[in-house]
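Design a sequence for this backbone.
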């Protein structure tokens, strides 16, 4: 029977396996919502981003709000082309927006603002040394004269509720795309507050466990919680400078009324940052307390070991003396000699045990 021709193998041959062609995903798959707002009210109907941008241009006060979730590079380039984002914004920020995990920042490209916010979410967990406590993501907001584009990475801190709340307050949406910028920033900072409150409860439980004598809490759990607090601080603290710039008059295209709202957001952010600093200090104190507790426990264990070693040394010493095989020991030839030595060993060990118990070594 003729053998079948062997298939080419790429494993271990040094040649990369042929890559599969990427199937382009329509931009609409990444769009969560797209709407046109005129005088603070949403226009009826469904629009593509291009149709919405064209429709907003037919009015004096209209703007578009496009919400995206985890878009790929092609989808982001399509949005950038529709809304005419600055080439530097496309090169320096859009690609980074696709990669995600950016540091919070605020940049201006001509009349377009680009704000990056890190999002955090509290994860329910058991107190151990491997549990994840804080999950992070990011939200990026582009605002121009007639558009607001929000890009969200991660499965938490959704913006559907933010849009619904804003649509119930047309007096806020009248301020245009910057109203969206404020609403998103306020929503993210509020989520910081919620996560901080949950972590504060974790720290309180950890403190109770550390200072409970019978507790077996491990120091690894404290280090894990401290690491998560450090990650939270890295996500929250850098946002202070962008919020301060938006709250102050630094020539940015932000209405005065929105600046007043941004000052309130900045105040909340400052409060959260102070709480996170307090968490870090509290956990450092817990680490020291846990180390001291471990040291005390080790000292207690060493005292017990030393006490038992002392009690074992007495019969060992007596047995060693009788093991030298001298015949001049007069009690060796007495019938009561062996029981008497055993009794002596027991009495001496009992006296040592009583002394150690009285001194609380055992």
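Sequence:
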């Amino acid at each position: 029977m003729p053998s079948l021709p062997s298939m080419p193998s790429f494993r271990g041959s040094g040649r990369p396996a042929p890559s599969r062609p990427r199937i382009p995903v329509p931009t609409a798959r990444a769009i969560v919502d797209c709407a046109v707002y005129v005088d603070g009210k949403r226009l009826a109907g469904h629009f593509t981003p291009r149709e919405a941008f064209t429709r907003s241009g037919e009015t004096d006060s209209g703007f578009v709000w496009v919400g995206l979730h985890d878009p790929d590079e092609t989808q982001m380039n399509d949005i950038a082309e529709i809304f005419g984002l600055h080439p530097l914004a496309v090169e320096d920020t859009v690609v980074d927006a696709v990669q995600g995990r950016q540091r919070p920042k605020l940049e201006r490209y001509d009349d377009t603002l680009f704000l990056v916010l890190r999002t955090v979410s509290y994860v329910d967990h058991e107190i151990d040394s491997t549990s994840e406590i804080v999950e992070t993501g990011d939200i990026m907001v582009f605002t121009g004269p007639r558009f607001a584009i929000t890009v969200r990475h991660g499965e938490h801190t959704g913006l559907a509720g933010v849009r619904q709340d804003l649509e119930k307050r047309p007096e806020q949406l009248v301020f245009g795309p910057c109203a969206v910028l404020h609403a998103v920033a306020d929503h993210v900072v509020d989520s910081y507050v919620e996560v901080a409150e949950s972590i504060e409860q974790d720290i309180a439980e950890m403190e109770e466990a550390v200072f409970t004598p019978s507790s077996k809490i491990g120091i690894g759990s404290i280090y894990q919680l401290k690491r998560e607090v450090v990650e939270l601080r890295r996500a929250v603290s850098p946002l202070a400078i962008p919020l301060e710039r938006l709250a102050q008059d630094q020539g940015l295209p932000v209405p005065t009324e929105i600046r007043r709202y941004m000052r309130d957001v900045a105040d909340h952010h400052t409060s959260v940052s102070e709480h996170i600093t307090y968490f870090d200090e509290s956990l450092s104190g817990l680490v020291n307390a846990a180390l001291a507790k471990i040291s005390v426990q080790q000292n207690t264990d060493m005292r017990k070991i030393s006490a038992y070693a002392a009690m074992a040394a007495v019969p060992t010493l007596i047995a060693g003396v009788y093991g030298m095989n001298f015949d001049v020991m007069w009690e060796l030839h007495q019938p009561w000699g062996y029981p008497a030595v055993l009794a002596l060993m027991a009495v001496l060990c009992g006296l040592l045990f009583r002394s150690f118990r009285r001194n609380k070594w055992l």
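The chain has a mean pLDDT of 83.
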